[in-house]
Structures are given as structure tokens and as C-alpha cells.
Design brief:
Distance between the termini: 37 Å
Order of helices and strands: HHHHHHH
Number of helices: 7
Number of domains: 1
CATH class: Mainly Alpha
Length: 112
């Protein structure tokens, strides 16, 4: 939990996301809590040094508590096409409760 607090604090101090990623290698961690918190901070800050890490995470992890903030961050930063592309790949792996939430968030109807 302290790790997550530090991530938030560093971003509130405008620490360079790329330098932080290089030093902490957060995207390569196996801890979903840490990765989700990191992605939630870097997406709105337009940090592009993640490659496919966000997509891989959203495809692998199906918990709503991780999905909702990340898809919201993508939508809030006008990355709707990316969010929809990832969701199209990931949706078959998500629980029905998660798909219901994401369908509503992404304004999808039952036929998609």
C-alpha cells in the first residue's frame, strides 16, 4: 500500500513518469495493485513509454476494480479508439458483471 501512496505523491510533485518508470520498472511488476495504480496515474499524464503494457494488463486482468479506472482514464484522455480496441480483445475473458459495467462505460449496446 505504501508503494501506491508513493506513486501518487510523486505524480503530485510532477516527477517525470519516464524517469520513474526507468528507475522502478513498475510496468514489469507482477503485482496488479501496483500496475493498476501506476497506469491510472500515467494515462492522464500522457506518458507514452509503456508500449503495450496497458493493453496487456487489461487483457490479462478481469477485475472491475482495475478495469473501470483504466478504461475511464483512456476515455477521459480522448483515447476512446484505443479503449474500444482493447476491450474488443479482452471482453471474452471478462466476467459478465465486468462486461456489464464496461459495456455501459463504453456506451456499447447488447449487440456488440
Amino acid at each position: 500500500m505504501r508503494y501506491l501512496i508513493v506513486i501518487g505523491l510523486l505524480f503530485s510533485l510532477n516527477v517525470n513518469g519516464q524517469k520513474l518508470e526507468e528507475y522502478l520498472m513498475i510496468a514489469s511488476k507482477n503485482n496488479s495493485e501496483i500496475k493498476a495504480a501506476w497506469f491510472e496515474k500515467v494515462i492522464p499524464n500522457n506518458y507514452n513509454g509503456l508500449g503495450n503494457a496497458v493493453e496487456e494488463f487489461l487483457v490479462e486482468v478481469g477485475r472491475r476494480k482495475f478495469l473501470t479506472p483504466l478504461y475511464k482514464a483512456l476515455l477521459d484522455t480522448e483515447q476512446t479508439n484505443m479503449a474500444l480496441s482493447i476491450y474488443k480483445k479482452a471482453r471474452p475473458n471478462y466476467h459478465s458483471v465486468a462486461t456489464g459495467t464496461m459495456d455501459e462505460l463504453l456506451n456499447l449496446n447488447d449487440s456488440e
